[in-house]
Design a protein that fits this description.
The protein has helices spanning 3-7, 70-79, 126-137, 146-149, 177-180, 241-249, 261-267, 298-307, 310-317, 347-356, 375-387, 403-409, 423-430, 445-455, 460-477; strands spanning 12-13, 24-25, 48-53, 81-82, 84-86, 92-94, 97-102, 108-113, 158-161, 164-168, 186-187, 204-210, 214-219, 232-237, 255-256, 274-288, 322-324, 363-368, 392-397, 413-418, 480-492, 496-497, 517-518. 26% of the residues lie in helices and 22% in strands. It has 15 helices and 23 strands. α8 runs antiparallel to α10 and α14 (445-455) packs antiparallel against α15 (460-477). The chain is an alpha+beta fold.
């Protein structure tokens, strides 16, 4: 590997409903994920696949509960397992959980574990599950999944036996399986607190790790979902997209994560690399801090909604590789408020709102960084759009390695994006008073109460109506200016097989290298 790089199943059924409902996996090993090459013959065993991702610098960790970046999630998926994960349709798919069963009141759920072992041979037990969740939920910590686990009364939850966990909830929760699939909710061995040499139950076992540089892992032959085809998997950090692409073209890696649309167009169909597009996988937008000037005035937020020319942003920042947004997360997903009218640019109304708010001649700083394709370009486009409404936007380009941590609580206005997750998970992780990744600082008790009401409602129609009320409010006065949904683009060497074509980022079959092989 050159110096530049060094710097740099689903097969199951989910039946949710009344008491006695049970989700059971009916086949674990299964067939490989859909292949970007079409029919490619039987999988071939052996070899090392090198996958290039953007990273988080020298402060990187293999603690799966501290996962925040896409490379964190991909490495955690290789080494660890969750009780469930999200399928391509964002429904919860059983993983370490063989099934789950609620009581009639939806406030107690029993989880049955499948037979699985950690890399050191110990069985995965209910005690490991409880330790993992209690570690995530520790009040002293700031793990991302903490907000997702909030509904669980972990003090009252118990291990019924080594393969059965009973979760007692603080209130009824109709969509509790989403908690089991939450980003970062991985199961680690009981007592584990150090992850310098992590022991998980995932398809690959730890060999070596250099933060900000590489992780090497080897095949776990005892993996419950079938041993991987690859002998070894190496994650290589290449912060710049150009470095990832050049490494792929030069044969130094076989997989490059996250290409810009222009790069994909340059190389697509020319035979040197294969481009895989995952349509509409990534929400793109800006976050406005609603707890501080100028965005603590809803009229300023509403003006910014109307400043955005969404089609210009999608075409200019994403090269047209995506769809326009409407300031709501999860376009096309369950509970998405598709009946709300699509916002369009209205500079006259934006100026009037700013005048009403006493914000004529407004100047704001827009934090951005080359932390994701299109970020800096979108910032420049929005700056020009805002100028036509009399708003001066000063662009501040920050450190791409620390960007996500930096914008969480500082600044007022910033570039933002997200991979796919259920709308319910987006709400719980980012829009409740206790959410640990609340980048808009949206904190309203009545909104929290409405969210809790949705999760206490068994009737699907009523729950949908409650979700729509929440989304109408966010559409009217929230802090997310969501202008688009980008195609997620990865590229591979032509010899790579088994890359899923229908798996949005953050879902089960995304970056699932245990189903990948080298032809």
């Amino acid at each position: 590997m050159n110096d530049q790089l060094n710097r740099l199943a689903r097969r199951g059924f989910l039946i949710a409903g009344g008491a006695g409902a049970l989700a059971l996996a009916t086949g674990c090993a299964g067939a490989p994920a859909p292949d970007a090459h079409g029919s490619a013959g039987p999988p071939r065993r052996g070899g090392r696949l090198r996958a290039a991702f953007a990273g988080g610098g020298a402060a990187e960790t293999l603690d799966p509960h501290a996962a925040n970046l896409f490379v964190d999630a991909a490495r955690a998926k290789a080494l660890f397992d969750k009780l469930a994960d999200f399928g391509a349709d964002l429904s919860a798919v059983p993983r370490l959980a063989a099934g789950w069963e609620p009581n009639e009141a939806l406030d107690t759920w029993r989880i049955t574990l499948r037979r699985a072992t950690f890399h050191d041979g110990r069985p995965v037990t209910a005690a490991d599950v409880l330790h993992s969740y209690r570690r995530i939920a520790d009040p002293r910590g700031t793990f991302r999944a903490k907000a997702s686990l909030e509904p669980i009364d972990l003090a009252a939850s118990r291990a019924v036996d080594p393969t059965t966990v009973e979760f007692r909830l603080k209130r009824p929760y109709a969509e509790f399986p989403n908690v089991l699939a939450a980003f970062g909710a991985y199961i680690v061995p009981e007592g584990a607190t150090s992850f310098d040499r992590p022991v998980g139950s995932g398809p690959f076992a730890f060999v070596s790790f250099r933060p900000g540089s590489s992780l090497l892992a080897r095949r776990n032959n005892a993996y419950w979902d079938g041993a991987p085809h690859l002998d070894e998997l190496e994650f290589v950090i290449a912060a710049e997209e150009s470095a990832r692409v050049n490494a792929l073209l030069g044969g130094q890696v076989e997989y490059a994560h996250e290409l810009a649309p222009a790069t994909a167009r340059t190389h697509e169909g020319k035979g040197r690399i294969d481009v895989v597009r995952l349509p509409g996988s990534a929400m793109q937008g800006f976050v406005m801090k609603t707890d501080r000037p100028p965005f603590d005035d809803r009229r300023v937020r509403q003006a910014f909604f109307l400043i955005a020319d969404r089609r210009e942003l999608v075409d200019g920042a994403l090269g047209g590789a995506g769809d326009i947004g409407n300031d709501l997360f999860g376009k096309g997903c369950r509970y998405y408020a598709s009946a709300l009218p699509q916002r369009t640019q209205d500079l006259e109304r934006a100026r009037a709102l700013l005048k009403e708010a006493g914000a004529e001649g407004l100047r704001v700083t827009l934090d951005t960084a080359p932390a994701a394709p299109g970020f800096v370009e979108a910032a420049g486009i929005f700056k020009d759009q805002a100028a036509r409404a009399g708003v001066t936007v000063e662009i501040k380009v920050g450190n791409k390695d620390t960007y996500w941590k930096d914008i969480l609580s500082t600044g007022t206005f910033a570039s933002y994006r997200s991979g796919a997750m259920p709308i319910e998970s987006h709400l719980s992780q980012r829009l409740l008073t206790g959410s640990t990744t609340n980048a808009t600082q949206w904190r309203h008790k009545d909104f929290d109460d409405l969210y809790q009401q949705t999760q206490s409602t068994r009737d699907e129609q009523r729950r949908t109506a409650l979700h729509e009320r929440m989304q109408r409010r966010l559409h009217d006065e929230g802090g997310f200016l969501i202008w688009g949904f980008a195609d997620w683009i990865v590229a591979t060497s032509p010899k790579v097989r088994g890359i899923a074509k229908d798996a949005p980022a953050n879902t089960l079959d995304w970056a699932r290298f245990d189903r990948t092989w080298l032809a």
